[in-house]
Amino acid sequence: MSVVRSNLSKEQQKKLHSLFGHATLHLLYKASVHGFTAAAFHCRCDVQGPTIIVAYNNAGFVFGAYTSKNYSQSGQAIHDQEAFLYSITAENKPLRVAGITGQAAFTDAATGPNYGALVFLHEDRPQIQSNPGQAFNFNAAAMHGGNLALTELEVYRVEGLGDLLAKPWRIIQWTAERKKELMNVIQSYKPDINTVHQARVLLVGPVGAGKSSFFNSINSAFRGNMTSQAIAGAGRKSLTTQFRTYTIKAGKGGGTLPLILCDTMGLEEDADAGLDIDDIVNICKGHVKDRYQFSPSAPLQETSPGYNKDVTLNDKINCVVYVVDTCKVSLLTPKMLDKFAAIRKKTNLLGIPQLLLMTKVDEACPIVAEDLTNVYRSVYIQKMARELSEGLGIPLSCIIPVKNYSDELDLNQDTDILLFTAVEQMLNYSDSFFENQDTEEVELYRSNTHIRPVL
Ligand SMILES: Nc1nc2c(ncn2[C@@H]2O[C@H](COP(=O)(O)OP(=O)(O)OP(=O)(O)O)[C@@H](O)[C@H]2O)c(=O)[nH]1
Ligand SMILES: [Mg+2]
Known about the structure:
It is a single chain. The protein has 455 residues and is of the alpha/beta class. The protein has two domains: 10-159, no CATH class; 176-443, P-loop containing nucleotide triphosphate hydrolases (Rossmann fold, 3-Layer(aba) Sandwich). It has 13 helices and 16 strands. The protein has a six-stranded antiparallel sheet, sandwiched between helices. Strands 12-13-11-14-15-16 form a six-stranded mixed sheet, sandwiched between helices. The protein has a two-stranded antiparallel sheet with strand order 4-7. A hairpin with a 7-residue loop joins strand 8 (118-120) and strand 9. Helix 5 (176-187) runs parallel beside helix 12 (413-436), helix 6 packs across helix 12 (413-436) and helix 7 runs parallel beside helix 8 (334-349). The longest helix has 24 residues, at 413-436. Guanosine-5'-triphosphate (GTP) is lined by residues 205, 207-213, 232-235, 238-240, 266, 359-360, 362-363, 403-404, 406. InterPro entries: GTP-bd, P-loop_NTPase, TLDc_dom. It comes from Anabas testudineus (Climbing perch).
């Protein structure tokens, strides 16, 4: 018996995986082999648990539908909050479309899979019916390029979404006491050099990775309510276009924390797009003033008004934090990895310690979304951390998963603990920077009497 093989290329598989995190795909049905009919589909795909439909058309679109529910020809309208429609093309980022709130995801009839907006195997033929707005809303051109004829249709069983490690790979105490302890450590931090008043941490990462949201989240967690001082949101181009140095207050009207978070424009893979590497070097050396407007085609010059000539140790970056979206780890292109490598090389030369934040762990793994305390038990999150460690040449010990506040109205203790753990590490790494400074220069400033808080 010949083996039925998937039509998905390696690149398409990666994009598909980025839509729902840790999962293996098991091919159940291939229309060109088993028949482009509803009966052939149901014969192989009924009662299989979570499945994903992968449809191919001549315009080069690969698109379909995921459901966590069974097909069983019950005739019922099936509600499934996890269901989504998607489209992946060679050029664009994957498109993921969630259902319209309150509407059923699909009709579980004896027809081809019917998601309202997309009906597959329509009239038992290699074609779809497209009705955007019915249960799902999308732009038809972006979903399938307006090409309704299918060249292939595959259905995969999605397995292994719920894998948990027997033991977490890092131990975190998820208690109110721990949260308080972390807050105290951060608030009482004092650099080991008398003239330096705070740690200055630089956030660098691809467009939309969650750099601005990280500052907003730390600010909110310390303020005790949601804040959105830094503009955050989704777009193809970076929403942050200015260099910003943010201070944080310990509670409303409280004192300023000994931490400055520096937010930057997103990195893009092309040479003349996004944050420029020369600008990163100038920021690290303390030459870039707050509110400097980034210009990808023309990095900051010494003669520009945004250039700070009189630099002290207070202006220099003490820790560089790379921010990467956990859902997009497998989509990091060789060009983007090269850019990271070039930045790391420059940062190493400046003697600045580096950390990596893996954001959006909630979007990347459903069991983490359900309960954030699973973050170090999720097989998928650990796998992504290892992949990043290898791809970027950063030790696993320097990689910290976090969840930023994105759509919630209330603070959450577990979210705060994970965020504060990341900040604690940034302060520890900043200490390493101060210890690396030229001893002769720094001895002049180093306090003999100051005692560091015990961490
Ligand atoms: N679910 C979830 N969403 C997040 C998280 N972090 C950020 N987001 C969302 O991701 C989107 C992009 O976040 P930003 O903070 O604007 O990302 P950025 O890195 O500052 O992006 P640019 O400034 O455009 O380069 C926003 O819609 C955030 O709400 C997270 O941990 N979980
Ligand atoms: Mg931003």
